[in-house]
Amino acid sequence: MKEAGNNNNKNGFRKDNAINNFKDNELENGSILAAAAHELEQMVDQVCKLIGTPLPETTELQRQVLAAFGFGAVYSITHRDQLVEPQAHALSIRMLIKPFNYSEQQAVDFADDLIRVASNEEVHPVMNTIIHRGINGHVQFAQEDYEALASNIQEILAAVQQQG
Q1: Could you tell me the pLDDT band of residue 121, with boundaries at 50, 70 and 90?
Q2: Cα 164 to Cα 157: distance, rounded to the nearest angstrom
């Protein structure tokens, strides 16, 4: 018969400690993702300043290019912060919803496309290149090398607009 007030499970671990540790981990994960999401928003804002076009005034093509570039930044943050795949996926979707204003379904679909493209260059070589340039762009942003970041994104936009 169980003693009243005994919070130990059959292995002798305190249940309330396990629950508190789980809650602490969830709060820490939430904080890490919130900080990463904020960093992505700041990067997108900076990139838009560097190209001289506020995000709401970009064309759909520019917005897609900037989102793929931002996805490269997600990849960079994922490795830096040692995020697991579900966290990286959530961060990607979050970035596409805010600041890019895609609907939830559009963001999920676009994130899945970006993941597929990032993992197989042959699916869409241009988009794959943009994603990889976004990885470099995140490093440039983190180092506050805005001149290199501006050059990076402007080269991409010029090349894509020539193709389009």
Answers
A1: confident
A2: 10
